[in-house]
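TL;DR need structure tokens for one chain.
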Amino acid sequence: MDSNKYANNNNGTTSPPPLTSSDHSLDATGMRTVDTLLRLVPMGLCVAALIVMLKNSQTNDYGSVAYSDLGAFKFLVHANGICAGYSFLSAAVAAVSPPSTTSKAWTLFFLDQLLTYLTLAAGTVSTEVLYLAYNGDTEITWSAACGTFGKFCSKATASVVITFVVVAFYAFISISSSYKLFSRYNAPLPDPSKQLQIPAFHG
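>> reply
TL;DR here they are.
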């Protein structure tokens, strides 16, 4: 057996060689690729939700309706546009270099959290509008509109569902970026001078 490959332990067993710098480089490259792909997928989803909602309008004998008539849907369009732009930029940053500095890690952590809550808010508000459109509100004599504008409601629902898929992706991305950030810090060591002193009782 080649002694350069394996080192003998005291008990006669052998142990694998330690990881080299090239092994760490391969691990870092793999993590960088996964991070880039995780950020590119939401970009495509945001663009899809954006296009579906932008093209959402319907005209029939009862009138016409478009996404721009409802503030919640306009908010959804803007949120998905911001999400698509940020996803592209953050994927480019992740592909070029990992967050090697603490400031870069903090920046990605903060922006990932912001995008998660932004898309969640847009999806939640739009869901409330869709609920009223499907079910109406008898207390204010607001009748259901989706019976009349079914095509419009179907497209709006598809856009909202895609947005919530984006939320799920960004929730995972936020967990990943928070782990990468806070794993840089060591757990605080206990202060011996502040340890709790328990008096001993003798019988």
